[in-house]
Amino acid sequence: MFHVVTAFIALYVMVRFIWPLRVSLPCKWVLSALLLLVAEHHLITRNVFGSMASPELPGEVLIALGWSFGSLIVLALLLLVRDVIGLLTYFVSPQNGRELLRNRRLNAALGIISVGLSLLGVWQAIRVPDVKNIEVTVPHLPPQMDGLRLVQLTDLHASRLLQAPWMQAVVEKTNALQPDLIVITGDLVDGTPQARAADVQPLQQLSARYGVFAIPGNHEYYVDYVHWLPAFEQLGLHMLLNDHVLVTHNGRQLVLAGITDKAAATTRLPLPDVAAALRDAPQDAPVILLSHRPIGALANARQGVGLQLSGHTHGGQILGPHLLAQWANQGFVSGLYDVQGMQLYVSNGTGLWNGFPIRLGRAAEITHITLRAPAP
User: Fold this and answer.
1) What integer pLDDT is reported at residue 94 of this predicted model?
2) 284: Cβ contacts below 8 Å, ≥ 6 apart
3) What is the maximum span of the chain, computed from C-alpha positions, in angstroms?
4) What is the tens place of the pLDDT at every residue in 285-313?
5) Is pLDDT above 90 for 184?
6) Of 101, 161, 136, whose CA–CA distance to 351 is shortest?
């Protein structure tokens, strides 16, 4: 389905951008063919260079492909906005509407803008993210735990695009915060344990007072999930797979629970189960749930969760089209939400998938969270 959608996007840009160009017919066909190759490069890399999740190509090639594909997507969005405005104008003033829809100079300007915005977006996507500091009031958090600090990393997507030096920089920024807890909410890797061994090695240096905990995301299930689990444990990541641990701070306990991802259905592995994750947990202790996807937040709130930490959406990656990601994730895409008294925080992600490395108006983040007790 993904490849069908990208083909339709390419067709739209061909009709509305390439064919109106004042160039020869053979040139239009060549440009159209190149555009189609850019639109379908995921299909090509999947079949020739490994997998769609993690093509084993040099990082520079992935950057170039991301820039080209990003330019196509941004151009399609700009053309769509122009065409919608043109059609609306046509109903008021047919002549002005036709001029807007057929304006070649505007077409050229949109093409230049899309290339520039995509270049900016790729740079924003692959740079080491800044620290984002937030405070979250957690229901039932005892005063003794007020001020407990944790760092959330999510959607690291270690790959040939985001390699060991990038991961090392993220680890150093995280450790510099000296948090009480570090949690990683899924999509740590793209590729096999053998291919990513060096790229994930810096994660072994993560250090927090009460430990480092992680859950799988959907991408873990795409390639060799079973062998990734022991690899994560060897890195010092305590995997919470429909399970919980108790964190004791200033004499009081906190339940830190984690669940698997629904992508497990394709591999016949355990599906996410919040009830199992909270089984035998103290009834009076506040609960923090690690769930890669924000969906299901309403049901989780009913199970007594006080704070859910999620990722998966990447914040929608582009401001405006992020509304599609919001719609696909039950209205949750970025930031802090109150869900029937439960706090839900959806991170924009620390990294992102190499197949669409672009961010515009939806910055990546290393999330530094200070927990606050409710006011008496």
Assistant:
1) 87
2) 140
3) 77
4) 999 999 999 999 999 999 999 999 999 99
5) yes
6) 161
175 has pLDDT over 90? yes
**Beta-carbon count within 10 A of 184 CB:** 30
Cα(124)–Cα(366) distance, rounded to whole angstroms? Answer: 14
Residues 7/66, Cβ–Cβ less than 8 Å: no
| Strand ranges of the sheet holding 342-346, from the earlier edge strand across to the other edge | 243-249, 252-258, 287-290, 307-310, 342-346, 335-339
Query: Could you say which DSSP state residue 243 is in?
Result: E
Backbone angles phi, psi at 118, to 5 degrees: -65, -40
Beta partners for 214?
184, 239
Give kind and range of the element (H or E) at residue 233.
Answer: helix 225-234
Q: Which residue has the tokens 């795409």?
A: 222
Q: Which two tokens stand for residue 165?
A: 């030096």
Q: List the beta strands (DSSP E) in 187-237.
A: 212-215
| Alpha helices in 14-103, H assignment, sequence order | 25-39, 41-48, 59-92, 94-102
pLDDT at 79 over 90: yes
Residue 193 CB neighbour total at 10 angstroms: 18
Residue type, 173: K
Number of DSSP helices (H) and strands (E) in the chain, helices first: 12, 12
Q: In what order do the strands lie in the sheet with 212-215?
A: 130-137, 365-372, 149-153, 181-185, 212-215, 238-239
Amino acid at 184: I
Query: Is residue 91 helix, strand or coil?
Result: helix
Q: What's the pLDDT tens digit per position in 8-42? A: 999 999 999 999 988 899 999 999 999 999 999 99
Reported confidence tier of residue 45, pLDDT bands at 50, 70, 90 = confident
Handedness of CA 191, 240, 327, 75 (dihedral sign): negative
Q: Is the pTM of this model over 0.90?
A: yes
**Rg (Cα) of the chain, in Å, rounded?**
23
Task: Supply the DSSP symbol for 187.
Answer: -
